[in-house]
Design a protein that fits this description.
The complex is a heterodimer of chains A (270) and B (291). Chain A is of the alpha/beta class and 270 residues long. Chain A is 34% helix and 23% strand. Chain A has 2 domains: 5-96 and 173-268, Rossmann fold; 104-171. In chain A, strands 1-10-9-4-8-7-6 form a 7-stranded mixed beta sheet, sandwiched between helices. A 3-stranded antiparallel beta sheet of chain A has the order 3-2-5, covered by helices on one side. In chain B, helix 4 runs antiparallel to helix 9. The radius of gyration of chain B is 27 Å and the shape is flat. Classes of the chains: A alpha/beta (270), B mainly alpha (291).
Chain lengths: 270, 291
């Protein structure tokens, strides 16, 4: 079995595939809030094209802070961070990063087609093009018959699909997801996990950075699991998940699956 | 099972098979009527009872109509003066509408200006509150001095009284946008104006409409107060002017008729805004769901 448990000492060396373009690179990244709270300490990580990286850890371990720094919502206080080869704020202007949050963040008054095309509308893309793209992504998440519905007519799982469709509309290179399935029931959660993996496999070059506190979800979805521990928030281990895609429900009951679950759970105790 | 067997019994005429859905629909319609009636009949019954009691007691104790007119006196006064009453109502409606429209436009624009910059909001908003606490009756004479007695002054007074609820409600609405949604717009590189038009203003709509509901009735009050102070004479006076004239002439029944008309104008304004509000919010906001 090839499971490279990376210890903290190895973190300096790039772990991503050497041939892949680097999308996110963190070196010794740190964030201390003005009140003195150390949110993230010495986080080093590199993510290349076509990766599916899950950040897993308890609340307060700094995973959302890392997410916010990559998104350019907060500035790191130490270390170096580059996204798409530039600063996070510059990277965002290239329209190649997309976001999904735990809340669906849909506009309640807007029809689904207007909701999913929002990123294009804000960029001034012509209406005809917008609609075509909107229909494409709604079909991708299996909601093409609902273009004229408003969000409140949908279930929680459907709203999350729309939210994912909106993120996919600009064909992003980097998809940042902050506990997207955290508020869903287990059955809906699993079917959305399957769908997300399908979509990710179709868009080969897209990298996903996925935050979760669910170990099962992390091991099922990712190519690598970034295990984080709190007080102060830091990356304690990065675990490669060497299971080929497409991953089906069979994977959830394979011995390898439970093995990785145990490995990640152990790492979380450090 | 027995029911199904009976309806499928071939010895019965075929119409029996189609009957249940129709009967079901008729029953539903009947239920809806019953529901509507149960909401409408009690208040109407109270009104009829109240008016009848009013008429009866006044006739019984023969109270002079200049002190308290009977409902029949009021009705008679309204019919006798219907031409004047109509003109007064029309004048007041026009004044109130102009004042209300101005307060909607300026109230919303002002709120947007304040919402765009926290610094501007912090420095200007306290004065808007202070302005609101000055009694309008105290300011009205100054407005008459500045703008002259008549329509202009009345519209401005109506505007001043209905402006603040719209300003403050819109501002609260604009400032209560969810942080998540604001982050989303920020991350997708939305400009400040895009965030206002596509997010904060639509999200504030329920608040703005609540402000309109308060202000539309206030604008009628403002118009009538304005007419008390700056009323124009002759044939074109509004309800406020007609009320002052009726009171000096001790035409109490007509005074009542004018007062009731003013109330009806206010209620109609409210009902129109309420209907618009329900229509705009129906598909997405909880407040209009069961309305």
């Amino acid at each position: 079995m090839n499971m490279n448990a990376v210890t903290r000492d190895d973190l300096q060396t790039p772990v991503g595939r050497s041939d892949a373009k680097l999308l996110v690179s963190m070196q010794q990244l740190g964030k201390v809030y003005p009140n003195g709270t150390v949110a993230v300490q010495q986080a080093s990580l590199q993510a290349g094209e076509g990766e599916f990286l899950c950040f897993v850890g308890p609340s307060g371990c700094g995973k959302s802070t890392i997410f916010n720094m990559i998104a350019g919502l907060t500035e790191p206080t130490s270390g170096h961070l580059s996204v798409l080869g530039t600063t996070p704020k510059e990277a965002r202007k290239q329209n190649e990063i997309a976001f999904v949050f735990q809340e669906h963040t849909l506009l309640p008054w807007a029809r689904l087609i207007d909701n999913v095309t929002l990123p294009l509308t804000l960029r001034g893309v012509p209406k005809k093009e917008r609609i075509a793209e909107g229909e494409r992504v709604l079909e991708l998440v299996g909601l093409k018959d609902y273009t004229k519905s408003v969000p409140r007519q949908l279930s929680g799982g459907m709203k999350m699909r729309v939210s994912i469709a909106r993120a996919l509309i600009s064909r992003p290179k980097l998809l940042l997801m902050d506990e997207p399935f955290g508020a869903l029931d287990e059955i809906t959660r699993q079917s959305l996990q399957d769908e997300l993996l399908n979509i990710w496999q179709k868009e080969r070059s897209m990298s996903v950075l996925f935050i979760t506190h669910n170990v099962f979800e992390a091991v099922f979805l990712s190519t690598r699991v970034v295990v984080m521990t709190p007080r102060p928030g830091k990356i304690s281990e990065i675990i490669d998940i060497d299971i080929p895609f497409p991953r089906t429900d069979d994977y959830r009951v394979m011995p390898e699956f439970s093995h990785y679950i145990r490995q990640v759970s152990e790492a979380l105790k450090h | 099972m027995d029911k199904w067997a009976a309806s499928l019994d071939t010895t019965r005429p075929p119409s029996v098979l189609t009957a249940p859905p129709d009967a079901e629909r008729a029953k539903q319609r009947h239920e809806q009527w019953k529901k509507l009636a149960s909401r409408v009949i009690p208040p109407i019954a109270v009104l009829v009872l109240f008016v009848a009691l009013w008429e009866l007691l006044l006739r019984l104790f023969s109270i002079p109509p200049y002190l308290l007119p009977k409902p029949s006196d009021i009705g008679q006064a309204a019919i006798e003066n219907s031409a004047n009453l109509f003109i007064s109502v029309r004048t007041t409606v026009v004044e109130a509408l102009l004042g209300f429209a101005a307060s909607v436009v300026l109230g919303v624009l002002f709120a947007i200006a304040l919402a765009l910059s926290k610094t501007v909001e912090r420095s200007v908003y306290p004065y808007a509150i202070v302005m609101q606490t000055i009694p309008i009756v105290a300011v009205a004479p100054i407005i008459v001095i500045w703008f002259g007695a008549g329509m202009n002054a009345i519209v401005i007074i109506s505007f001043l009284i209905s402006f603040f609820p719209i300003l403050s409600n819109t501002l609260i609405g604009l400032n209560s946008t969810e942080q998540n949604m604001k982050n989303l717009f920020y991350l997708y590189n939305a400009t400040k104006m895009q965030t206002i038009w596509r997010l904060r203003l639509p999200a504030a709509l329920p608040y703005i409409l609540a402000g309109l509901k308060i202000s539309c009735s206030l604008s009628v009050v403002g118009a009538i107060v304005g007419e008390y102070i700056a009323g124009i004479g002759g044939m074109q006076g509004g309800l406020g002017y007609a009320i002052t004239v009726a009171s000096t002439r001790l035409q109490t029944a007509y005074l009542f008729a004018c007062g009731l008309s003013a109330a009806i104008v206010g209620i109609v304004f409210f009902l129109i805004i309420n209907a618009i509000s329900n229509r705009l919010l129906r598909s997405w906001h909880d407040s209009a769901m069961n309305g």
